[in-house]
Structures are given as structure tokens and as C-alpha cells.
Automatic annotation (TrEMBL):
Keyword Magnesium: no
Domain of life of the native organism: Bacteria
Locations listed in the record: Cell membrane; Membrane
Organism (species): Photobacterium indicum
Recorded coiled-coil stretches: none
Protein's membrane topology: Multi-pass membrane protein
Location of the MotA/TolQ/ExbB proton channel domain: 72-194
InterPro entries per UniProt: ExbB/TolQ_transport (IPR050790), MotA_ExbB_proton_chnl (IPR002898)
Protein name (Swiss-Prot/TrEMBL): Biopolymer transporter ExbB
Gene Ontology CC, one term: plasma membrane
One Gene Ontology biological process: protein import
Length: 247
């Protein structure tokens, strides 16, 4: 209670609005930072390494991979697991499902940022309002004084009035900065998710942009080529033998 009374003496009528805005700013920034740590940490390289170990026709292995990825915290794993689970659908349907999933995750990543921006706009106005109200009270006190007004009286009144503006700006700076930085982070994570999901969707269709993911298909495609080459060589030798016999 002593702390609250001291704050009320320092900031006047704007004490509780400024305290509420500061508490909301701290909670939102902490919650978003924790969300950053939980959602990031996995890049396209790890996804490519996982896909490189899988065969496209191995339904059992792909189902196990999807179940394993769904239990992981990073969003990139969950998105790839969603696409693998829908691999039996046509490519346009998978793209629609991926688009809806990306929109949901974009909304989740940007949740709370509008409130942070609103706090960053409101708190300087609250501080300015507290300053104006403090100046009004100061001039009322001066008008009610019958004696001479000393500089110390003016300094105390002006200091009390200006503290609310300073408090509002102190709250607004981290709120606006945090909202902008977290918005940039959300856009970067969404772009990474979209790129990786497109890559995984092409992999499910049989097109590999990464040579490492195509190592299994290369091994299986070399053998038929070698058989065709050997067959063609045998046919040429047979033609030459028959020509020599005819001569």
C-alpha cells in the first residue's frame, strides 16, 4: 500500500491507467518472447535431412514420420507433418490446406501485437493528460494562495505534472518497438513456413529441388539405365556378327 500511495503522489490521477498499461506491456512482451523460443529452432536443412531419409512410396514410414513431427513444438515440423498426412490428396487440395494452416499460424504469431501498438499510442496521451491535469491543479493552488509564490512551489507543481508524460513515454517506447520487432519476426517465420511447405509439397509430387532429397530415387533410376545401355550394346554386337556372317 505504501508503494501505491507513493505512486499516486507521484503521478496523480493517471497512476492506475499507467500501471495497467505497463503491466499489459510486460506480459505481452514476455508471452511473445516465449512463443518465439518455442516456435523457432528448426530450419529447412533439418527438414531436407528428414525427407532425404524417406521413400515417397513408403506409407508406413511417412505415417510414422508425420506422427513424430506432430509431437514436436516447432511450427515447421507441424506444417510438414500436416502436408505428409494429406499426401494422398491432389496437389491443389494440399495447397489449399497449407494456405489455411498458414493463415491460422500467421494470426497466432501476430496475436497481441495490435494491443501492444494501441498501448504505445495511448500511453503518451495518458501522460499528456496527466500533465495537463497536474498543471490545472497547480494553477488552482497558486490562485488560492494569498501570499507570494516561490520558485520552489512552481518547481514542485511542474515536476508532478511532467512526471506523467515521462512515464507514458517510457511505457510507449518498448510497446511500439516490441510490436514492430515481433511483427517482423512473425513475417519471417511465416515466409520460412511457406517456403518449406512448398518444397515439401513438390517433394511429395516427385520433384526434388534439393539433390540430397533425391538420393534414393537416383539409386533406383541408375539400374534401368544401365540395363538399357547393355541391351543396346548387345544388339549392336549381334548386328555386326550377322553382317560379318553374310559377308
Amino acid at each position: 500500500m505504501d508503494t501505491i500511495n507513493n505512486l499516486q503522489n507521484q503521478f496523480g490521477l493517471m497512476t492506475w491507467p499507467l500501471l495497467i498499461c505497463s503491466a499489459l506491456t510486460i506480459m505481452l512482451l514476455l508471452e511473445r518472447c516465449v512463443q518465439v523460443l518455442l516456435c523457432t529452432g528448426v530450419g529447412k536443412t533439418k527438414i531436407n535431412a528428414l525427407l532425404a531419409k524417406q521413400y515417397r512410396d513408403d506409407d508406413r514410414g511417412l505415417d510414422e514420420l508425420a506422427s513424430e513431427l506432430k509431437q514436436q513444438r516447432p511450427l515447421l515440423y507441424k506444417g510438414v507433418a500436416m502436408l505428409i498426412s494429406h499426401r494422398h490428396f491432389d496437389k491443389p487440395l494440399r495447397e489449399d490446406a497449407a494456405g489455411i494452416w498458414l493463415q491460422q499460424k500467421r494470426t497466432q504469431l501476430r496475436s497481441g501485437l495490435r494491443l501492444l501498438s494501441l498501448i504505445g499510442v495511448i500511453t503518451p496521451l495518458l501522460g499528456l493528460l496527466g500533465t495537463v491535469l497536474g498543471l490545472i491543479e497547480m494553477f488552482k493552488g497558486i490562485a488560492a494562495t494569498t501570499g507570494s509564490v516561490t520558485p520552489s512551489d512552481l518547481a514542485d507543481g511542474l515536476g508532478l505534472a511532467m512526471r506523467t508524460t515521462a512515464a507514458g513515454l517510457i511505457i510507449a517506447l518498448p510497446a511500439i518497438t516490441g510490436a514492430q520487432l515481433l511483427g517482423l519476426w512473425a513475417d519471417q517465420v511465416t515466409a520460412k513456413l511457406e517456403h518449406t511447405l512448398n518444397h515439401c509439397n513438390l517433394w511429395l509430387e516427385g520433384l526434388d529441388l534439393d539433390p540430397a532429397c533425391n538420393k534414393h530415387s537416383k539409386k533406383t533410376s541408375v539400374e534401368p539405365s544401365a540395363v538399357n545401355i547393355n541391351t543396346a550394346t548387345a544388339n549392336i554386337n549381334t548386328s555386326l556378327s550377322s553382317t560379318e556372317t553374310a559377308l
